[in-house]
């Protein structure tokens, strides 16, 4: 019975995917998608692998995701691979293995020459070797004319806002601006100009896998007017059909931008 069901899926899913993709309105595709790649450890446990095996399976699924984004016309993708909290809350041996997988994934993404890689996060919290590999990928792909891929490693939304305010204060201190003068002119645009994603459009759609329905600090500032899509699939199991369903759900919504 299981083999029969698998055979039916292999026949029906491609036809269903084709139909969903065919009827996606080109003018309602999100420009910027944020993705929370959640569920790697649970997936590993379910299939009998160790934690590293789950992280590697998750890293391998990034490549097809970016291909799907290219197919529908997405311009910017932000991938949350590791939070700043993870760096302090996870066992050191687990972190070492995860960081090694992240380094390998980033190097492989950059080596394709298809996408522009841009690290976002508190790189000073990372081991020097990891931070350097992220910077190298950024430099290597700076002139690539493809999807801009933000790699969020050591990332936390509160930390990003604090870093933005700190950078803003340092900039104005260098100019000789007094605190009173700054307080009179500061607005949301001033802070936005110092975020990790400065100069980029805010995410139109944020996808979280694994059934969790919370942001957990992801793109806190930028997601004020984003649409959210929560998918039951664990990240390594996230398929093209799941992606297309998310895009279709986004296209069907009426965006109100806070009104």
Write structural notes for this entry.
Helices cover 52% and strands 13% of the residues. With 259 residues, the protein is α/β, with parallel strands linked by helices. Strands 3-4-2-1-5-6 form a six-stranded parallel β-sheet, with helices on both faces. It is globular, with a radius of gyration of 20 Å. The N and C termini lie far apart (51 Å). The mean pLDDT is 92.
What is this entry, summarized?
This protein is of the alpha/beta class.
Provide the fold topology.
Elements: H1 2-22, E1 32-36, H2 40-47, H3 51-60, H4 62-72, E2 76-83, H5 84-89, H6 92-112, E3 116-120, H7 128-140, E4 148-155, H8 157-175, H9 179-185, H10 188-192, E5 205-208, E6 227-230, H11 240-252
Parallel strand pairs: 1-2, 1-5, 2-4, 3-4, 5-6
CATH superfamily of the domain at 30-162 and 204-251: Decaprenyl diphosphate synthase-like
CATH topology of the domain at 30-162 and 204-251: Undecaprenyl pyrophosphate synthetase
CA(first)-CA(last) distance: 51 Å
The arrangement of helices and strands along the chain is HEHHHEHHEHEHHHEEH
Mean pLDDT: 92
* Count of individual helical segments: 11
Low-confidence stretches: none
How helix-rich are the residues, as a percent range? Answer: 40-55%
Strand order of the biggest β-sheet: 3-4-2-1-5-6
Q: How many beta-strand runs? A: 6
User: Structural class of the helices, strands and pairings?
Assistant: alpha/beta
Query: What fraction of the residues are assigned to beta strands by DSSP?
Result: 5-15%
Work out the radius of gyration. 20 Å
Shape field? globular
For the sheet with most strands, the description reads: 6 strands, parallel
> Which second-level CATH architecture of the domain at 30-162 and 204-251 applies?
3-Layer(aba) Sandwich
CATH class of the domain at 30-162 and 204-251: Alpha Beta
